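Priority: medium. Attachment 1 of 2:
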């Protein structure tokens, strides 16, 4: 008898709901302190997960969820750049 495969779950920093890791978008802080969107979910660094909707990004920005998860202060310019990157991905 085979045991079912475990599905990794992560919490969105915007809406605070638990979802499958594949459904979420990973925002990554690299060792150099740069922020980027990790589409593969495998790059090295500290990550925070967001739903693939602009509402969750706005909520995370308002309640400082990304700052808390990534353990760094995020300037307005970086939030704007992340929003543009999310638009280019198609969210």
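Attachment 2 of 2:
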């Amino acid at each position: 008898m085979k045991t079912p495969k475990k599905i990794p779950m992560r919490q969105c920093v915007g809406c605070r709901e638990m979802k499958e890791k594949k459904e979420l978008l990973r925002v990554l802080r690299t060792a150099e302190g740069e922020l980027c969107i990790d589409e593969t979910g495998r790059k090295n660094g500290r990550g925070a997960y967001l739903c693939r909707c602009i509402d969750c990004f706005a909520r995370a920005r308002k309640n400082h969820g990304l700052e808390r998860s990534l353990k760094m202060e995020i300037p307005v310019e970086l939030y704007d750049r992340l929003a543009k990157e999310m638009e280019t991905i198609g969210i």
